Amino acid sequence: MNELVSFDSVTKRFGHTEALGDLSLTGTGGSVHAVTGENGAGKSTLMNLLAGVYHPDAGTIRLKGNPVKFENPAQARRAGISSIFQELTMLPNLTIAENLFLGREPHQGGMIERRIMRQKAKEALNLVKSKADVDAYCSELSVAEQQLVEIAKGMMAEADVFILDEPTAALNAPEVAILGELIQSLKAAGRDIPLLRYRIGAQGRAPRRDGSGRRHQSRAADFPHGWADTRPALSRSRGEEEMARQRHGSL
Ligand SMILES: Nc1ncnc2c1ncn2[C@@H]1O[C@H](COP(=O)(O)OP(=O)(O)OP(=O)(O)O)[C@@H](O)[C@H]1O
Ligand SMILES: [Mg+2]
């Protein structure tokens, strides 16, 4: 089996909260996984562990069969993990080209080679079929455009694993279709793509965070039919269920 990434009995705690308990998952090349779970089920924690932001308290993460312990996000990126966070991470006051090459700008004689940087940025945007201007400031881009640029960054780095947290939450239908095509092309190129998704409740509504970090209710569709090959589900640990029940009454 073409195993790219696996979690083997991974546990992550924050104080008394067990964000992920004894989680085992496997991702193979050329597959898309819709990882679902309600608020607090540990979706973002899963991503942060893979991205090198957090470290497991127990268990092993493997990449292509080899155990990995990322000290920081840069190490995870270098190992081929591209993480597209719910709160996008591009710097708004830099251009697309500057963001794509942040920290690894091409140099010649102590000077940044802007022409080469812009050319390579254009090639990267072509890969994701984005029509954005490489000189545009990221603050001018829609969420969908920013997501595409982040995926382009992962493609430039030849990432093997693209993990996206709630990727359709802020997109309209045509943007979802574009993202879907891109995900299928990454899959065809042998990448492994976990997509994290809130599990839709009985009313078909999902809580979301707005810009200020507050939660609010908004309509949300499940991933379009045919996107995912597997649908692993995360659930809150029993302690968390109990705390949520105390906070919100019965669930
Ligand atoms: N940095 C942190 N410090 C303390 N507790 C945390 C931290 N990050 C997550 N948690 C807790 O871990 C649990 C899992 O959180 P996580 O954000 O991974 O869930 P989620 O599935 O992404 O939820 P959501 O649907 O709200 O995005 C929650 O109980 C959360 O409060
Ligand atoms: Mg989350």
Task: Give a topology summary.
Elements: E1 3-14, E2 17-28, E3 31-37, H1 43-50, E4 58-63, E5 66-68, H2 73-78, E6 81-84, H3 96-100, E7 107-108, E8 111-112, H4 114-127, H5 143-156, E9 161-165, H6 173-188, E10 192-198, E11 205-209, E12 215-219, H7 238-248
Parallel strand pairs: 3-10, 6-9, 9-10
Antiparallel strand pairs: 1-2, 1-4, 4-5, 7-8, 11-12
The structure holds adenosine-5'-triphosphate (ATP) and magnesium ion (MG).
Adenosine-5'-triphosphate (ATP) is lined by residues 14, 17, 19, 37, 39-45, 198, 240.
> Ranges with pLDDT <50 over ≥5 residues?
200-221, 243-251
In the CATH scheme, the class of the largest domain would be: Alpha Beta
Kindly identify the CATH topology of the largest domain.
Rossmann fold
Reading side by side through the largest sheet, how are the strands ordered?
2-1-4-5
Measured distance between first and last alpha carbons: 40 Å
The named CATH superfamily of the largest domain: P-loop containing nucleotide triphosphate hydrolases
Strand content: 25-35%
Total of helices: 7
**Given the C-alpha coordinates, what overall shape results?**
globular
> In total, how many beta strands?
12
Write the H/E string, N to C: EEEHEEHEHEEHHEHEEEH
Rounded to an integer in angstroms, the radius of gyration calculated over CA atoms is 19 Å
The SS-based structural class is alpha/beta
Counting structural domains, the number is 2
| Cofactors, ions and other ligands in the entry | adenosine-5'-triphosphate, magnesium ion
